[in-house]
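Suppose you are handed a protein chain with no further information: no name, no annotation, nothing but its sequence. What can you learn? This example shows the usual starting point.
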Amino acid sequence: MRTLICLAVVCTATLSSACSDPERERIKETTKPTYDKSTGKLTELTYDRNKNGKIDTWTDMDGTRPLRSRIDLDEDGTIDRWEYYGEKGELLKVGFSRKKDGNPDAWAYSGEGDKVERVEISSTADEHKIDRWEHYDAAGLASAEEDTNGDGRPDKWETYGGGALKTAAFDENGDGKPDRRLTYDNGQLTLIESDPDGAGAFTRHVPVHS
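A reasonable first move is to predict its three-dimensional structure. Written in structure tokens, the prediction is:
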């Protein structure tokens, strides 16, 4: 984020105290600004992060405010990181491609300490049609909900412990509530529960023996 602020500073010649002289000189050497011909407003910054002569970061700008960045981290010619910024230039989310095809299909949101708090995933690579929501804690993936039939509502719920799947529950009649739950131990299915009562508690319990 500091780099983006300094990029905008260098290219607009404002708020020069926002970055140090050495930092400003380094950025000048690796940055190319683009301005709107009619208004003179800064519209894009390209940046060579490692100074190897190859542009790897493209940032859409609204004057001094960054809007979004596209980054080719491994410089293979395919974008693999997308950054989205808020009204004050703060980083809102980071997009990435699980298929590594140059199109974002998952977006990570940070919580306290800049640690990933949740990830939203779209099976159709459409950020407006999320169908899986993952939640993280200090130990990693903690739980997830998934819309498996595309109706916009979760119908599958998972819990995790130590990186392993603990339970998976399913809504099989479309009422928005779990009808069946599978419990796992060290990756092995150990219990199947079904027939929930009015309060949602499962009344049928079938142990699975390996």
